[in-house]
Design goal:
This protein is an alpha+beta fold. The protein has one domain. It contains 3 helices and 3 strands, in the order H-H-H-E-E-E. It has a 3-stranded antiparallel sheet, covered by helices on one side. Helix 1 (about 10-55) runs antiparallel to helix 3. The chain is rod-shaped and about 85 Å long. It starts with 7 loop residues before the first helix and ends with a strand. The mean pLDDT is about 80.
Length: about 150
């Protein structure tokens, strides 16, 4: 008959709890990354909405021939960055690109309706539990058609 194993329960507990902790922290990190993507997608939609509302027949028109600081201006001034700022994201590292496209998907030279507007937001995601891993860049985009 073999003698009873001493410390076996402690070893099993340590191995199990390490696995559980890694899964919990991984789940929290994944939730934070998905939240960041959702915030960026919502901010891009706000930029598209602004461009559509301020189309070619508006006194504050938006388009490829005019600067659009209201959409992608300096940190904290554009609607995209303002939307993202309310969700506690650092907008100083955020990149916003506004493209006006014609029906073929090529860059448009004017905003005569119907012109497509595409807003792309890029954000370097910093991990909540930073273990020295590389920084991921999260991208979100939205597009709509200027009809007015």
């Amino acid at each position: 008959m073999l003698p009873p194993a001493k410390g076996q329960a402690i070893v099993e507990f340590v191995l199990t709890i390490l696995f559980v902790i890694i899964v919990v922290f991984g789940a929290i990190e994944l939730i934070m990354m998905i939240y960041t993507y959702v915030v960026l997608a919502e901010a891009a939609k706000e930029g598209v909405r602004y461009a559509i509302v301020h189309g070619s027949n508006n006194s504050l028109r938006s388009g490829p021939t005019c600067p659009c600081p209201a959409i992608d201006g300096p940190p904290g001034t554009g609607v995209v960055k303002t939307t993202a700022k309310w969700s506690l994201h650092d907008t100083s590292t955020m990149t916003v690109t506004v493209n006006y496209l014609d029906d073929a998907g090529n860059p448009a030279t004017n905003v005569d309706p119907p012109t497509m507007v595409r807003v792309v937001v890029s954000y370097p995601y910093r991990a909540f539990f930073s273990f020295g891993w590389t920084t991921l860049t999260v991208h979100a985009a939205a597009q709509g058609r200027i009809m007015n």
